[in-house]
Amino acid sequence: MIEVVNLCKSFGDNHVLKNITTTIKKGEKVVVIGPSGSGKSTFLRCLNCMEDPTSGSIIFGGEDIADPKVDINVHRQKMGMVFQHFNLFANKTVIENIMMAPVVVVTKKLKKQKRDNLLIKLHLKKGEIVPVTGSVQEIKKQAHDKAMELLKRIGLEDKADAYPSSLSGGQKQRVAIVRSLAMDPDVILFDEPTSALDPEMVGEVLELMKDLANQGMTMVVVTHEMGFAREVGTRIMFMDDGMFVEEATPEEFFSHPKSERAVEFLSKVL
Amino acid sequence: MNGFMFKVEKFLDILVNKGGYKEVLTGLQNTMIIAVAGLLIGIVIGTLIATVRVMPKYSKVVRALDKFCSFYVGLFRGTPMVVQLLVFYYVMLPLIGVKMSSVLVAITVFGLNSGAYISEIMRGGILSVDPGQMEGGRSVGLSYGTTMLKIVIPQAVKNILPTMGNEFIALVKETSVVSFVGAKDLYLAFQSIGSGTYEYMVPYLAMAIIYIIIVCLITLLIKVMERRLRKSDRGR
């Protein structure tokens, strides 16, 4: 699903990622762990080009999305991301947060189709007229219904018209997860989704993530939650100093870590 | 004190009975038109410039635009408004051979000028918004422009509203120089009332009071707007 080839990322003279090559398959739950400063988050943020890779390529949906000429927005719609600090739109209500991307994207498509049809009619463009169905109202209604359904799923339908500032951390993060789900992504990237939460709110977020995992969502998770890594992960990638030092199944990694660095790390966190 | 009361009576006589109020109303109208239209043009220009200046500078086009914008801001902040009015009216217009009414000239210059100032205010506002908001928008596949327009700028506007109020008030007051190019503003109205009687004391005092009242009203308006925009901050 995602193929990373010779990915390098440096900030000035600071080489954060050093020649990373790996493949993430459909349905996998990859958990990236490692000491802080090892480049975990940078790796994740390079996957959807939130940070532009310095060199190397990332193949997703049949295209190298690290290439600046590729329309990254189209690919990001299929590659959700959940942030440590939620990044919900502060000026939009909960339901608007979830509806925003679907409405904008579908409306844009509709408008483009209408424009194309007009050009074809005026013989300025070749092609066949595709009948346009639906209106902006219908698009909004559909997005609203879907958003409501997603909110029900996380039990926050009564918060639909509240602003994010009135939600608790756990609620915010669950809304953020649902916001990325609204685009029906093929994969979701989680960047330390529970690190900014109060301890008692970590559970509800992890629960939702487990739920997604059980439904077969492909996930790449950067986390410090070893319990989650062990329980949900299908592959652990241990990162140190900009490289993947060790890759293994959770059972193998947690019971018989091979590299010295991993042994040391595990002795500190477990 | 008697002398002052006499002057007030004389002023009121001209204002009410001899049609002076018409001039004042026209002046007030022009002053407000120039300030409001200037502000609106300034907001559009300022937002565009600010957006260009905070854009990531990957492409040559953006870099060239950025250079142009900083030149523009430097130009309009580096010269007094009066000079800009005079140059536009007496140099630019004859050169390109266009005739424009003096109010229109004032609106254009005020718009261009406030655009330069507002661009810096807006840039500060955009930078004050958490970068996570842009990332959040981009992560769900929205374009840079859409995220900017629908997520970042609305929040920036909320943050800069008090400063924008400042800018608007400054604009209203600065309109008092538009008579340099012959636009009939509030100042010109009272000046002509005064020159009719060679008695300036009361007309200019009245003018000052009107300016203060306008500014107070604007302050009130901004407070109301701010309260409405702060809605998303309060936990509901």
Structure description:
The complex is a heterodimer of chains A (270) and B (236). Helix content of chain A is 41%, strand content 22%. In chain A, the strands form two sheets. Chain A has a six-stranded mixed β-sheet with strand order 6-7-8-3-9-10, with helices on both faces. In chain A, strands 2-1-4-5 form a four-stranded antiparallel β-sheet, covered by helices on one side. Chain A has nine helices and ten strands. Chain A has 270 residues and is an alpha/beta fold. Chain A has helices at 40-47, 72-76, 94-121, 136-153, 169-181, 199-214, 226-232, 250-255, 260-269; strands at 2-11, 14-24, 29-33, 55-60, 63-64, 79-82, 187-191, 218-222, 235-240, 243-248. The two termini of chain A are 32 Å apart. Chain B is mostly helical and 236 residues long. Chain B has helices at residues 2-17, 20-54, 60-78, 81-96, 102-128, 131-139, 144-174, 186-197, 201-229. In chain B, helix 3 packs across helix 5 (102-128) and helix 7 packs antiparallel against helix 9 (201-229). At the A-B interface, helix 2, helix 3 and helix 5 of A face helix 6 and helix 7 of B.
